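quick one
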Amino acid sequence: MSESPVSLLGIRFSELQEILVADGVSSHHMRALWGAVQRIAFTDLASVDFLPPLRKWVHENVGSGKRFFIDLPEQSEEIHSSDGLTRKYLLRLTDGQVIETVLMEYKGRFTACLSSQAGCAMGCVFCATGQMGFVRHLTAGEIVAQVQHVRRILAASHPDRRLRNIVLMGMGEPLHNYDSVMRAMDVVSHPAGASVGANHIAISTVGYVPHILRMAEENSPYRLAVSLHGSTEEERSSLVPMSKKWNLETLIDTCRNYCRDTGRRIFFEWTLIKGENDSPETASRLAKLLEGIESHVNIIPLNPTNGYDGSSSKGGEEFQRVLREAGIPCTFRQRRGIDVAAGCGMLKAQKLRKNSTVNA
Ligand code: SAH
Ligand code: SF4
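structure w/ S-adenosyl-L-homocysteine:
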């Protein structure tokens, strides 16, 4: 572990146990500490009535200028969609970076959409986050803190409900920040933590091939979603510049091997962009590409950005029909939360634009 202070929120159960034992504190205090750290909205460990050895450890090790800290980001903005089912939060991190976290309700079940980075290095042309560029990776603690934030909100608004699903589909490319994302997901899926089932956690990647391989090697329990958006090399790399590095053929081969080696299915995300990747011909090329891969395609109409427009619902239905007829399971997702700028990074981009107008 590094010398600079580390957030206790992002430390795995087993790691905390090792730390305590190394410091001479009996591991049977472990559950009390872990429970307190992961308790919703809990930041002041000093006020917990721990047994003396643990109280002493907390006093010596947790707090300002010490080895560990617990820090929940400050909420700088909250927006509710008009359908009342999507709530979007802008959270300000300690260094002033602002990230987005979304809480969505579907049939009484709640899903959190988390950010993994401030900005993103992948530069997808239709994505507001991609257009901001890369700022930095989030720490595991900052990723877990987003889960704590929405759990607190949920506890206040729906005390009988718990957070059921997590998707890493907010700002950033999660597989570019592999270690922190995996550590954070290990924390939030732990039964003594937020206890979100590993098969209810989806990690969405634009096609970061080396780390898809790593997920397969490590037999990662989390679901894999791959954002494809193009059925030919040309079509894809005009939308996803990163495709020049790990091209479509390599990505599809990697996905095929992932399914074969892990026995898991892959969810493919397809952001439907008017005039770019929404023709029936593209749909049938996509169906061919996915032949023999255990897959499910999620078609998402683009939230308009950067001069790109979403396809009409008729276009989306036609695209879905072609895939279905070719035997590819697929779902056409409605544009939920469009009025809260729920596309990846869109709310933050809007704020930046507003601020630059004010400052001009
Ligand atoms: N970097 C990862 C995860 C974050 S983006 C990835 O690309 O998969 C999550 C999803 O949001 C991706 O499928 C992406 O294509 C989609 N997305 C980005 N901008 C969008 C927009 N303006 N409208 C609709 N979906 C968008
Ligand atoms: Fe990054 Fe995903 Fe946006 Fe592409 S779509 S720029 S990978 S966040």
